[in-house]
Specification:
The protein has 116 residues and is mainly α. It is built from three helices and four strands. The chain has a two-stranded antiparallel sheet.
């Protein structure tokens, strides 16, 4: 992964959406990530972009279509979006990005955080 601006931080992959790339940069600037964490972050960003692409198709074409028998069927993008949302949530959880540093005893112990 290439560094950006000489700070030794990885650059976002070129195929990411502009806003997703901006989020990628903010995460690598704020969190101390190892190489494998950067790969997980990249997968999370790709999943987010996939969700957004599916949302655009669904907004344009609707949630269903009619098959050759004129029966309504769920568009494939609905399932793809659902799976990408789950993947994004799991990948963000794996990165432990929701750590706030608090000592909430109602929750199970947090993973060792990567926060700088």
């Amino acid at each position: 992964m290439a560094d950006f601006k000489g700070f030794g931080l990885p650059r976002p992959p070129k195929h990411l959406d502009r806003t997703t790339a901006k989020w990628f940069k903010s995460v690598v600037e704020e969190w101390d990530l190892d190489d494998h964490h950067v790969r997980i972050l990249t997968l999370a960003c790709e999943a987010w972009d996939q969700v957004q692409t599916c949302r655009e198709v669904i907004a344009r074409d609707g949630h269903t279509y009619k098959d050759r028998f004129e029966q309504p069927k769920e568009r494939p993008e609905v399932s793809i979006m659902h799976n990408a949302r789950l993947a994004f949530a799991r990948l963000v959880r794996e990165l432990d990005l929701d750590f706030d540093g608090g000592t909430d005893t109602a929750r199970p112990p947090a993973l060792r955080s990567n926060r700088r």
